[in-house]
Amino acid sequence: MPQWIKMGISGSTRRPRMTRVSRDRLFYDVYEYCVSFGMIEASALRGLDPVRIDRVITMRRSFRSIITWSSEKKISITDQHLLDLHMLCSFLSQAAEPFKLVLSGDRVWVYANCWEFLKKITRSSGVIRPQYSRAVIDRPIDTIVLKNPHHAQRSYFKEQAVSALQKEQLIAFFNNHRDNVRLSPSLVKWLQWPTRRIYSYFFVDYDHHSWPLMISLVHPGLIRKTVQLLPDK
């Protein structure tokens, strides 16, 4: 259960809640704070380029005006939505505070070390349900705390697409060693489904330190990072 602390401006304004996120390092090794929020067509902000925003929104409006099979047709992009994107783009482009912007669909994540800077962002028009978090470093680097770990180490995979032959080799490898490792549920499904894209949240748990080498011999470049698994005390 996450712990909550109240932070923000004083007075009658409702103070935003901040989630304390247990971590082994800062966000992206640099930033202490993060705010995430919704914004219509947020992915158009990629690159913080006003010209690109207009081009992307024009294309999306045109697409939605002609499609008949998609639910997206019901979602209109208003002039206010476009103005909201431009206002946030302008604010971030002129910001002196270092930050990292991450976008996915209608979702925005901004990482920074200045809490006041993030609060200013969430006062922008078009921001929907902001959520704040703070990295709390409470364990050694490259470790994960689990309630009841059954193995000593975990290796995460690097996102990539593999060939049909490479997938067959990985299926055979993990089938031959199924009693010695624990595969993430998403990796188990991937081995069963016809898709060939590997995602960065796939992982394998094991005990012997030779496993990353064994996996790399089957598929070089597959391991993204390895962490130690610690029991929760």
Structure description:
With 233 residues, the chain is of the alpha+beta class. The chain folds into two domains: 4-137; 143-231, Alpha-Beta Plaits. Helix content is 30%, strand content 28%. The protein has helices at residues 50-66, 79-93, 115-122, 164-176, 185-192, 211-218, and strands at residues 4-6, 17-23, 33-38, 99-104, 107-112, 128-137, 143-146, 153-157, 160-161, 182-183, 197-198, 203-206, 223-231. A hairpin with a 2-residue loop joins strand 4 (99-104) and strand 5 (107-112). Helix 1 runs antiparallel to helix 2. The longest helix is centred in the first third of the chain and has 17 residues, at 50-66.
Indicate how many domains the architecture comprises.
Answer: 2
Number of helical runs?
A: 6
Radius of gyration: 22 Å
Strand numbers in spatial order across the main sheet: 1-2-6-3-5-4
How would a crystallographer describe the biggest sheet? 6 strands, mixed
Using DSSP, what is the number of strands? Answer: 13
The stretches of 5 or more residues where confidence is low (pLDDT under 50) are 1-13
Shape: globular
Question: Kindly, what is the distance between the CA atoms of the first and last residues, rounded to a whole number of angstroms?
Answer: 15 Å
What level of helicity do the residues show? 25-40%
What portion of the residues fall into strands of 2 or more residues?
25-35%
Query: How do the SSEs run, as a string of H and E?
Result: EEEHHEEHEEEEHEHEEHE
Q: Name the structural class.
A: alpha+beta
Question: For the residues shown, what is the average pLDDT?
Answer: 90
